[in-house]
Amino acid sequence: MTLRFSPKIAATALAGFWLATAPAQAQQCGGDFRQFLAGVKQEAIAKGLSANAADQTLAGAQVDRKVLSRDRAQGVFKMTFLDFSKRVISGYRMKNGAANMKKYASVFQRTESEYGVPAPVITAFWALETDFGAVQGDFNTVNALATLAHDCRRPELFRPQLIAAIEMVQHGDLDPRSTTGAWAGEIGMVQMLPEDIIKFGRDGDGDGHVKLKESAADAILTAGAFIQHLGWRRGEPWLQEVKVPQNLNWAESGLDKTKTGAQWAALGVQPRWGQISGNLPASLLLPQGRKGPAFLAYPNYSIYLEWNQSFVYTTTAAYFATRLAGAPVYTEGNPDLGLDDAQMKQLQSKLSSMGYDVGKIDGILGSGTRNAVQQVQQKLGMPADAWPTPELLRRL
């Protein structure tokens, strides 16, 4: 399940840019499609790949108009944390997550031993991305990558991915005719782009290949290697539900502010399960304000933001992993009514006119809008929990 144009693009975009052999090559796009592919072939050969692999990959490549349509009309993610998490963390996924952690216990043990990433973390991504491999996407991968590389919106990202697909064909790990995946080129049970598969792909079942579409063992081990690369800290927590006192200074909440666990505990923040990690820095997350669920986000939470930049998806994936690790269901609380799409855009427009940087006026409660809301709440003497309400909009 891709909630923006690519779950891992945030982690790969800059790498894709700098790995291009030269800026001119990285930006070649548009024009006659066959001439464009000929240029890709020459670049692949210059990188040491075989002409045969390039021909095998590119000979049948076509522009996929459905890919361009998806890219031009990316759905915006506007669900609240409670709505989204209740929708995607189903009994089915909890049951199958536990079953898969048991079925592949030895692979998960190996993954944690080598990369430090525990089974629930990988399993939550596996569930949310593809329902444990059941829904991996039906777009031809080479066509998707060739289409997006030829298009001139982000050639610096997708041209290197197309070159990487040629390398996968040369290794025997991608069939240009039959390999399918997400519309933005991600492949397999945990939806990864070709460059990342080449760098972090691991053969978990010992067959000499990395087959993320068919092999759960390959997917698990590869995900572990990739998450470690993103900066995962072995043996540390990532998210913990907490109870917060009503007299807390809400302006101290948010991802841009941290205290040690011990400092939060001294302010009256209490764990709903387990123990607060006293020496670790943590941020207090209030996805729907002070009256909704509350979490301490430890350093490993930042890895989720590398995987996907959506705050709601990220927090849901991290929370789902805690559930798979044994945490109870969160306490929903009784959050204040939020804003609908039109109201959110109205709020963003107002904040922007006041000089706050909320980014695009898109109706999405992103980090810029949250920060602006929190600052305005402070100025108005309202609880500064960064949750926009009709009352805030009225006051403005």
From TrEMBL:
It comes from the Bacteria. Keywords: Lyase, Signal. InterPro entries: Lysozyme-like_dom_sf, MltB-like, MltB_2, Peptidoglycan-bd-like, PGBD-like_sf, PGBDSf, SLT_2. The keyword Lyase applies. It is an enzyme of class 4 (lyase). It holds the Pfam family PG_binding_1. One of its GO terms (biological process) is peptidoglycan catabolic process. Residues 342-396 form the Peptidoglycan binding-like domain. Its EC number is 4.2.2.-. SUPFAM superfamilies: Lysozyme-like (SSF53955), PGBD-like (SSF47090). Residues 1-26 form the signal peptide. Residues 33-321 form the Transglycosylase SLT domain. GO terms for molecular function: peptidoglycan lytic transglycosylase activity. PANTHER family: LYTIC MUREIN TRANSGLYCOSYLASE, MEMBRANE-BOUND LYTIC MUREIN TRANSGLYCOSYLASE B. This is Membrane-bound lytic murein transglycosylase B. The gene is mltB_1.
